[in-house]
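User: Please predict the structure of the protein below. I'd like the answer in structure-token form so I can feed it into my own downstream comparison script.

Assistant: Understood. Taking the following sequence of 627 residues as input:
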Amino acid sequence: MRTRSVLVATALLTTLLHAADGAAAAAGAPYPDRQAGHDAALAGIRGSDNAAAQEFVAAAGRLDRVSLYLSSAAATGKVRVEVRADRDDAGSAVADAAVDLAALGGAGAGWVEVPLTAPVRPGGRYWLFAQATTAENKQVVWYGTRGEGAGTPAGALYDEAGGGWQEGGGRFAFYVNPSGSERCGEAEACYAPASLKPARTAGLLANGGGAVEAVDPSFAVGARYVEGGNVLVLPSGRWRYLPAGAAKSRVVAAQDPGALAQIAESRRWLASGKVPGGSGARREAAERALLSMRALLRPNGAFAAAWYPFWDYSWPRDSAFAAAAFAHTGHDEEAYRILRYNAATQRADGTWEARTRLDGSGPPDDRQWQLDANGWVPWAAWQWYRTAPEANRTERLRALYPAIAKAADFTAGSLDAEGLPPASPDYWELPTSTANIGTAAPLLSGLNAAADLASRLGRDEDAGRWARAAGRLKAGIARRFAPHGYGRTVDGLHGRDSAAAFLAPPFNTAPQGLSRALDDTYRALRRPNGGLVPGSDPDTRWGNVTWTASTSFFALAWTASGERAKGGAVLDWVLAQRNLLGELPETVDAQGLPKAVVPLGWTDALVLLTLAGQEGDGPATPPGPRT
């Protein structure tokens, strides 16, 4: 066998690969045909000169499957699994199968379930045998425990150089005919590829009453959502869901009445609005985006960016896009709830904090406030108003109007002699020393939206004041940003910015020269994996990790500008980045794998708006000042 130093090194690697699974399983009551503990790397099984076997007593007369806790640093190769009557005799195998490491997702760790079907003698003694072959000079390890396992004998290691089989040293982690919570994906994760580790979450369970639980990436392996709901079908066939009134998910039998009732309610909600996308992958993505956004929306109207620490706050920017997406998919109540929350959390001077706690109690830290919210919130209110039921939308708009007016007045008052806003952190959440396009463009849209809403309420004086401010801002953008190809800042020192798309529909009427600038910006920000980084500022190193929201800006802008084929191609790239549960990630790494949080509500909203636009029913552009 390999030396102890190799095993220790492999153990350290495996600890990194499956740290989220914990150091050990709760073994429960011991059985002669199972041993759940896997806190120790017991045997390297790579190569014809290495193998391992675990003796067990058959409890039933037939094999259906076995499971082993394996870790592999190799991405390719096979693990041969056999059940033998005689450990030393390959010809005594009553069942065998080969597990393809690449099919498991490559390097990783966790429980590997292997279908093995054969009759066995109840009470008979057998050996579960495992041996790996790989062209890579990397180890495959069978884990177990060195602790006592009453009723389970010690395993055996095969080391050709050491003289053959050596007994003792621990008991391997295995199940024969695992059932119920012993099946992987229930209490413990199935074999999870190391490639899942860059993502902190993989999906959402929600019960409609405000409780939400993020799905750990390792527990998404082999799982899928029931169509139209936030209920997971597990590899075992059982279901995991978050029952009404519960704070933690439960695993139940398939077709559980409580889970079925929750699915039916989710489907009724989807049917109460519109699911854009037509059919196929686009519709599937739209359905999942809507359900995830609904889970992220709090009863008080706060909208979590994602369900993970440091993302579980409500940003006015993200929530404005969510409100617009809910509005354009026929979910008026949800859209208006967000707008009411934003109105309630507005600061006294008419601005917003960068983000607030989900209970509305204020900012979680001293992060600098961001002026672009003064554009996004009125823009979202305008999008909502266009789609809202006519019967009472005017009165509902009146309730929002004080916040819209304060936001627009602050924006108008902030413009300098050139018509530009002050430097402020934008969606990058990084400060600039001069005015940036990620603030100026949303503020122009917000002024235009506020002016139009004021006119609809007969507030002509307000409308005129904000329209004049919009005219000044539009001229300032043309004078200072256009010469630099609508780059990040007016000084031209900070490169391209994906926020240039905010000057296009459905935010603003595109100024002269924007079409070419967007093409140039898209090319400059595109990375080998096909997505975009937020910008090319030499002071900010984005590397090759691309951002789905930044990429989606262009899908939406080109779609809303009438270039549906161009926008659709970008949209399809974004949709191709969905994870194994069909959720949209915040970022995509250089290898094309989901990274950070999954799903991200802002990307969900952008995709929904783009899909609606692809069908000719997307967001319009607030009318600009007449010049």
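That's the full token string. Residues 77 and 134 are 4 Å apart (CA to CA).
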